[in-house]
Fold:
Amino acid sequence: MFDQREDIRLPAESPPQLMVVIDTEEEFDWNADPDPRENAVNAMAHIGRAQDIFNEYGIRPCYVVDYPVASKPEGYRLLKQYLDAGQCEIGAHLHPWVNPPVSEPLSRSNMYPGNLPESLEREKLTNLRDTIEQNFGQAPIAYKAGRYGFGPNTSRILEDLGFTIDLSVCPPLDARGDGGPDYRRFGAEPFWFGGDRRILEIPCTGGFAGWAHGMALPLFEIAMRFKAFKAPGILARLGAVDRLMLSPEGFTPAEHIKLTRFLHGRGVRTFTWSFHSPSVVPGNTSYVQDEGELERFLASFRQYFDFFFDELGGQASSPAQMRTLMETAG
Ligand SMILES: [Zn+2]
Structure:
């Protein structure tokens, strides 16, 4: 999928860089089968709850927007203001079942855009890119596949459509259960890939942390087979293996810090804080169901940013800034 891959690292003495990537999309039931009628973007009226925090810390987040957000004024109005003020970047996020033309059979596996025939994946992404250009005044250069479904044709399509950054790799996600990708063997480090026009991959920050990390995959697989005995939880309590993501959705500040310290100690210098836009309004995602959870959700942004900038000595960055930095680094 990622041909002519070439790993790239920032020098060990570089301060760690923090990016924020927001999957900016309609409110829908993540566990239900795809339904094109579920395309409301009411949460976007409240996206300022997150943007205000980024402004406070001088972070320029990258909103990867899908078709419902990019095409409806109530979806893009505030983001366009942030973009015009230089406070954010806008990328593309392809949810095929709500992105015209919807001519494929609606199924779980077709929610991963990389599973579609090349011509349809291309047509949908072209529509999305053009809609973003029309309503934001500039074409996106960063892409994140819906459900992280990067496929065998995605690289060529991105090159042809002018994308230069991909954000789809999400270790240690394993979505093979319903036809999705397996990112368990990917690390948190960026890499170049593609043919003539090189694309920078900036993965989500996630991984197996703990003293047995080298054995994490086999240990975790054995543990999952004994799930009835809560084996994954026991491994985590022993500090042996913990499967963590740098996200306020489902992970605590202590876990964000543990994962970051672990990866930083192993030389990782690029970190991505990611979440989904509907989480800024209670009731949309399983992570934020009431006002108390929303308060804790937003507080965890500040707790993590305070740690990253004050304790770890990190700096704020963005996918576009990172690409420039990596080009200079070679
Ligand atoms: Zn999404």
Summary: DSSP finds ten helices and twelve strands in the chain. The mean pLDDT is 92. The first strand starts at residue 6 and ends at 7.
